[in-house]
């Protein structure tokens, strides 16, 4: 699953990124205006980015920028503001062996876009994220308006290789985008109403429909559940269903690079995890929440961040089965594909309690 960058971006289904000059993840001009990333092999000049002159940024634009860079794994740490400049941890190289704060990050004074560059010679990752200037559409999404159609045999075969049945795909409304080359669509619904859609090609290119609500994938499946499972990607949610867990939902975006050492922000400023607050009415009903995130470091960091907000006293964390003497399987679909539904179910049932030994900050309850 899902959380270098191309690998982590596979866990960010809500974002399409163009990386230049060593390859492209997309060609849409509109999306390139939204996010552009590049990598250079030469060390960029170590010059402080200059603040752009301009008025105060609109709060909506600022939050949009925060959400976009969070999808890339960039943690601003401090509340973002127009003119913000800081040295952060690079999600591409993690700061190398010395764990340097090598990513120079800047939000221009107008708040219209952010830019960054890693100054480590071995990395040089750079990019820009732009706030959309147009107001979001209030037109209700429908399968017809999004041009969704039944899955082709090719895509059904793709899921079959991952041990996901056609029945599971149909129950979850998985379709494909008309006219696109093998673009799988994952509909996001709230009370049966389409509120967003994420897309993924077989080549692991990801993007989302404009105006997609920040919510959990499979929200309606956990609306009345006392025990729920949260995973790190849409395919893992489908995998859990093959093991008998309907009461499962997926986060809509990728994992953070690390666990934040700062206290919990207020709900209105908790932009990277806004989807949790938007689903508060569903989540507060659960007395037991199993976090089945990826087994890698970012996935484990995501589990910690989720537990801090959901309340560790009601959270359990899954440890995936061993692959060999040196490694473990990374996510639910890997376990389903290689070990089968019984082993996947056992992994979920044997999750470890995350209950703290002391009091925790307030959370989503």
TrEMBL record:
CDD domains from the UniProt entry: TOPRIM (cd00188)
Q: Which residues form the Toprim domain?
A: 226-315
Against Pfam families, the record matches this protein to: Toprim_4
List the residue ranges of the region (Disordered).
Answer: 346-365
Q: Which domain of life is it from?
A: Eukaryota
- Residue ranges under compositional bias (Polar residues)? 354-365
User: What is the protein name given in its UniProt record?
Assistant: Toprim domain-containing protein
Natural source organism: Eucalyptus globulus (Tasmanian blue gum)
Organism lineage: Eukaryota, Viridiplantae, Streptophyta, Embryophyta, Tracheophyta
